[in-house]
Amino acid sequence: RSSDGLQAVLEGVGVQSPIPQFPLADTQNSPVDIYLSYLADTLTQLTGCEPSIAYESIQWANDVGDLVVVLPRLRLPNIDPKVLSDDLQHNFPDTPLYAAPFSDGYNLRFFFDSCTLAQVVLPYIIDRGSAYGKDESSGFRDHEKPDAGRKKVVVEFSSPNLGQEFDGNHLRSTIIGAYIASIYESMGWDVCRMNFLGDWGKNIGLLAVAWFRFGSEELFDADPLKHLLDIYTKIGELFKAEQEAAKVDGVEKPDAPIGEERDEFFKKMEDGDPDAVALWERFRKVCVAKYAELYARLNVDFDEYSGESEVRHETTVEVETALKEKGVEEEGDEAWIINFKGHGLKGLGKPIVRHRNGTTSYLLRDVAAVLERSRKYSFDKMIYVVSAKQDSHFQQVFKALELMGQTELAGRLQHVSFGKSLGLSPNSGTGGLLLGDILDQCQSAVLEFLQTHSDDFPELQTGDASDVADALGIMALMTEDLSIKRANNVVFDLAKMATYDGYTGLTLQYWLDQVRSKLRGFTVDRDSLMNADYSMFMEDAYLPFVDVLRLLVQFPGIVKSSFRALESSTILSYLFRLVDLLPAVWDVETMQQGEEVGDLGEEQIEDAWGVAEADQGKPVPSLGEVPT
Ligand code: ARG
């Protein structure tokens, strides 16, 4: 792919001058930028405004037209935008790229010339193939010197706790984190996918207490994640009762056997006691193996199963030394703490750094992990994909680093948070949610849907449909979560997700299959594509195709804005706009092939159009039509 090839395509449609250069334009990755460049260049010549201002005055028309030049943005002194727009409408030179512009009073609106659009955009997309929409070069550390390597990002996500529930927060973290990791990859970054297991701390002490009281080798062998969760839940209830009893009248009573045993066990782990460490290691090994199977089912991969246990003692001491030097870590009544308030940071409280008995806290392990990872990976950026419930924890981590004098490092960290997850409930007889159970539930919901619609899926009635149902169930689950803005709460309604009604994963999969089967065995020959006759795109009957093209040119921009905000919903709503257009395309196709012509008349085509119109919430004027 070269700019020469692009220029040849443009010459083919009658655009002779080279693509004008604009710093903001990325004509190699985004075809609409070619249109913007020519348009901005003409505007500059006609009005004498600054080229970059001309470029930035153009935006997508959300209502009428494809592109709109917002004339007041040109900031031309002493010129009435009304007069200007009138003037420009009459004097705009003809170009093969657009139909003649029209003024809406203040702005100048343009429709793509549909024939040229097909001629330019189809080869453009086909040349790039699956790289279309990606921008690998944006991940270079130095654009001038690709040898300087790619930028490195560590994306930490999923991160369940050993022996505990895999709850809705872990599920969302897994789905959103996998999306973030892959969009960074599409943008050319070198990505490390890290799972930071909650495999250290007092909770593991409590798990050990549970094991000593209720553990069963047999049940552990049969289903380790479930058995550990069961016994952890059991001990949790007892421990809660103990804590409540100890707090009667607000007076702490010293007698708290479970709490003491928990703290002692964790202390032993931190002191390297061989038996304690061996038990922990056994739990960890078995659980990680199980998790890896479940993640494979989700098609999610990790480069590293790290965990709180990996943080080295020396690094925690290093953190504390720095904090103490700056006078930030203080000895409190119960433990060593950070006094954020004393350092002018209200609202962050006085979190514990190290407990009285010398053991580390979640905060201390997290801060130390930042230092270790920055040494190990020299990352340009590290992203924590963790529920909004931990907002203040991450503020504490970042602020602690700043107070230690690690401001630059703290600036490379980002907490990407998300709202609650509702609607999931544990399988009966389990103490809480487990990833395997969630996936099983999705699978059953889809199986049920397939069975109740057996007429639509005759091919699935003969064999075993469970694999198909599993893949579709996961598709449904992920689509549901990725379709909404992160900050919103997601409601997982399995019965609703497992249908073709509306904007579901099954709807996407259905259309993907339709497109694939239509294209099966079809290859595009680049030369014939260049020399094809595109005049049919001017016919009204082909408007549904042109609308698809109009959407396709937007794709690189959609990916970019999704990347900027780390919002998957930008891409998902784009995909749903696309599938909304496809029924109309299918109808045109059927008609052109002369199949069932008797059944398909004007009316059906209009019906098909109705779909596209309803989707966009606006009438779609035909090309070149000037709205009055
Ligand atoms: N294991 C934690 C939990 O389940 C999430 C870990 C988030 N990551 C971190 N670096 N603290 O709540």
From TrEMBL:
Transmembrane region(s): none
Keyword annotations: Aminoacyl-tRNA synthetase, ATP-binding, Ligase, Nucleotide-binding, Protein biosynthesis
Domain Arginyl-tRNA synthetase catalytic core: 149-493
UniProt keyword Nucleus present: no
A molecular function GO annotation: arginine-tRNA ligase activity
GO terms under biological process: arginyl-tRNA aminoacylation; mitochondrial translation
GO CC terms in record: mitochondrion
Family: Belongs to the class-I aminoacyl-tRNA synthetase family.
Protein name: Arginyl-tRNA synthetase catalytic core domain-containing protein
Source organism: Capronia epimyces CBS 606.96
